[in-house]
Amino acid sequence: MATEVTMPQMGESIAEGTLTRWFKKLGDSVERDEPLFEISTDKVDAEVPAPTSGILAEILVEEGTTVEVNTVVARIGSSEAEVVTTTPVAAAESAPSAEADVESVSEEIPEATPPAAEVETIQDSPAKTSDGVEHKVRSSPLVRRIAREHGISDLSMISATGAGGRVTKGDILGFIESAGKGAVATPAAPTAGAAAPSALPSLGLPRDGVTVEKMSGMRRKIAEHMVDSRRTSAHVHSVFEADMTAITQMRAKHRDDFQRRNGNKLTITPFFIKACGDALRAYPHVNASIDGDEILIHHRIHIGIAVSLENGLIVPVIKDVQNLSVAGIQKAVTDLAQRARNKQLQPDEVAGGTFTLTNPGQFGGLFGIPIINQPQVAILGIGAIQKRPVVVDEDKIAIRDMLYMCLSYDHRLVDGALADQFMAQVKQNLENFDESALV
Fold first, then answer.
1. What are the backbone angles phi and psi of residue 401, rounded to the nearest 5°?
2. Are 376 and 357 in contact (CB under 8 A)?
3. Sheet holding 125-128, edge to edge
4. Which of the following is catalytic: 256, 415, 420, 434?
5. Can you tell me the distance from the alpha carbon of 18 to that of 40, in angstroms, rounded to the nearest whole number?
6. Is 411 a residue of the active site?
7. Residue of 41, 265, 316, 318 with fewest CB within 10 Å of its CB?
8. Rounded Cα gap, residues 116 and 9, in angstroms
């Protein structure tokens, strides 16, 4: 009997995945637990290991195809005699799985949200097509939230292109954009298995003298997420300067002993995470999310760290920073960054963040002005540490290790006074860092 290989459920809120690459060809031998194929979801890219040893007897889903969880994508047999040559399911032919009826949501769900709200079952509502046949209009919590925010009460007005007649995020955003231009969308019967359109419109640009690259799933999701954030939050920015001389000296002093005791190099990142974590405890409204007209103030501090990848970036989350020392934070940073680059992260390791740090300074940037990582209300960009002459002790000039920090915050909740108080606290924490926190 051949062993079925299915699209895995990569976390509770994940309903589908895109099979981006096969590591094996039809007829190849495979060993149990070796990478078989690669998938991309709204949360994470990951390599999926073979569930058993044998021969890759059948490939049912082509590269680049999005299918719902639990869909059979291949079969592994025990001999070459079981190899079956079939036409795999292509992207436009992706069939829905009866076991998965929840659309993947591209934004992180706050950990403070009750579990029942994290994966809300899709609510079906009846609607009739032009021929009078009744069908169900399906949507996700994200789609229904967007509909509420834009005063859309009847989802049957929207042409549904998702699997099984589901109204996708791309559908409703396209409908809103068309309505804003004065166009009226005509409701249509769902097309089962139709590929969801990208939320990024084509501009019809000339193609002469250019190299055309297909946008990867990760790149497309980043683009959609950033556009959604700009659309959602009222972005305001505040820039502070901090003297990092004490920290750079402290790091140089303890570097060798730290690595000997902990097995990890002591980088600069944990100092920022620790300083921000302590400041978030002092100003909890920066460690918050907005849900409709309600403010969710998170009791736990989960800080996301933007990690640059070859084809984009990912934001693994360090959980419960309020309980960690610099050594504990460094261990988590090293582990998450390494596994992020090796595509070994699990969805829950990139979800639930309450605040985010991004570090353009590692590439020499003085500072960046980042876009908020929804549904959070603030993100801190860290610039490069540079030696500069500064005034110290009121009237003396000295060479110090200085950096700029830029806080982007959501003005719907965080006012300028709160943002600057928070930043002043981060600055104070960095310039007066407690050496005992290294342990």
1. -85, 105
2. no
3. 125-128, 134-139, 166-167
4. 415
5. 5
6. yes
7. 265
8. 18
Report in angstroms the alpha-carbon separations of 335 from 119, 330, 341, 344: 28, 8, 10, 10
Q: What is the pTM of this model?
A: 0.68
Cα dihedral 255, 259, 264, 269, rounded to 10, equals -20
Q: Would you state the structure tokens that stand for residue 30, as one six-digit string?
A: 């495979």
Q: Which residues pair with 305 in a beta bridge?
A: 357
Q: Letter for the amino acid at 302?
A: H
Kindly state the helix (H) or strand (E) to which residue 229 belongs, with its residue range. helix 217-232
Q: Give CA–CA dist 223/164, Å, rounded.
A: 26
Quote the CA–CA distance of 59 and 30 in Å, as a whole number. 13
Q: Is 382 helix (H, G, I), strand (E, B) or coil?
A: strand
Tokens of 197: 């359109």
> H or E element: which one contains 149?
helix 141-149
208 as an active site residue: the answer is no
3-state SS class at 173: helix
Distance in angstroms (rounded) separating the CA atoms of residues 342 and 358: 20
- The number of residues making up the chain comes to 439
The active-site residue out of 150, 237, 299, 411 is 411
Structure tokens at 215: 């946008």
Digit-by-digit pLDDT tens for the chain (439 residues) are 789 999 988 765 677 888 989 999 999 999 999 999 998 876 778 889 999 999 999 999 999 888 888 899 999 998 777 777 766 776 544 444 333 333 333 333 233 333 333 333 334 446 444 444 444 576 765 677 788 778 887 888 888 776 556 787 778 887 887 776 554 444 444 433 333 444 577 788 898 999 998 887 778 888 888 999 999 999 999 999 999 999 999 999 999 999 999 999 999 999 999 999 999 999 999 999 999 999 999 999 999 999 888 777 889 999 999 999 999 999 999 999 999 888 888 888 988 999 999 998 888 999 899 999 999 999 999 999 999 999 998 899 999 999 999 999 999 999 999 999 999 999 999 999 988 888 7
